[in-house]
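note to self — DONT lose this again. spent like an hour looking for the file last time. sequence + predicted structure for the chain T wanted, 508 res
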Amino acid sequence: LTAATGSNDPVPGNNSASISVVSAIPAPAIVASGATLIAESLTPANGAIEPGETVTVSFRLVNNGSADTTGLVATLQSTGGVTLPSGPQNYGALVHGGASAARSFSFTATGTTGGVVTATLQLQDGAKNLGTVTFAFNFVTTAAFANTGAITIPESGPASPYPSTINVSGLAGLVTNLKLTVNGLTHGFPEDLRMLLVGPSGQKLVFMAGVGGGYGITNVTLAFDDAAASALPASSLISSGTFKPTNNGSVNSLPFPAPVAPYGQPLLSNFNGTDPNGNWSLYVLDGATGDGGSISGGWSLSITIVSPINPAADMVTTMTSSSGTIHTGDQFTYTVKVANNGPATSSGVILTDTLPVGLNFISAVASQGVWGNASGTVTWNVGSLNSAANATLTVTASAATAGVFTNNATVTANEIDLNTANNASQASVTVLTIVPPRLANSSMQTNGNFQMTLIGQAGESYVIQASTNLINWTSVITNTISASGNYKFADTNSLGFNQRYYRAVRVP
């Protein structure tokens, strides 16, 4: 475009302009839009692909181009660690700018721990080759960290340093397996030792306590692994080897700055699903006088990390009883708590509480969601729980017969659970047969008041009631039966009645 004038133009350089337009043929542009792990051949499932594992993965595609596909077919290629892929899948018509679509493929992954498997889909829309899209997945990886500094154990009290620490950094993913090694342990009376491991997220575990008796040990190396064949010996000589974490008996809180008890179950899987990065702390305490020792080679951690393809949660359930001992006919409550300790929001959370035979369900109250009861099995549909959120269910029950009754509950969710060891909880209650109350040894006092003795269950409270017609009852006195099993009382309001009836009612 050019402009001209008959007058004098002092700036002729701007008298023309141009614009270019590129005409492109409309075409689809298919890109990856996420993946979901549907099935794993290895157990326990960890939400990731491992070398040698056969998996089924749903691959999602979206069309970001300028034209629709008519019959898009994707073929998984035998490259990038993918072997034995399943056949092609038809994605059909993908509208440009529209919704994504997903199809499932199965394959066996090859490679080494710490590597990557790359799934490549070849795309064909009729006669048109639309190229490829790729999906990359990290294999699980294992990293080792150590503090080789010696730890001195005194004859009594905290070791030095207290704690000994290992700083972990640079790991991407979540803990899926943990192993711990104590190098060069020497002690004259190992039963005195208490060893506590605390993770960066605050999880804590007493992995060695009340073991080895008085059999002195010199320069032994102890590895701790949940999958070990046996626990440490309680009262015999400890030799170097690999053992399950072992905590024989209750352990009181270790001195500050160690976190306070309780310290949970002796399982290294308590750390599963947590971020491994940060300070890991080892607290060592000699709980008695007379013998000292050392850990000459320090300690080390082997941490296996997983990068879950799907969102990962860590569902936890705990249960408490309102009373450890009750009597037949008494009502009591179980309080069941579910919590999500994992990194992602959990959905479809279901808790199943199975009351033992002999307990009668009465009612339940939930802090969220809905529950139902079928023949003593309470199913609680919790719904969703954000990370670090929790919910509670209170179940009221009673027992008609004596015995010890253990209630069990389990929790599940839609997401991969990185620590299934804490998905179950239980609580027990002891039910005693109660002595039925009776009134005996009645007599009239010289002052005209009526006196009698209540015989009942020691330690239980009863209210004595009186009536003149067996219809309307009035409370006379409330008291607790002594250890002797009886209580003597007098009705100071009995004067002037020709006929008066009495009964005793236990206070629940």
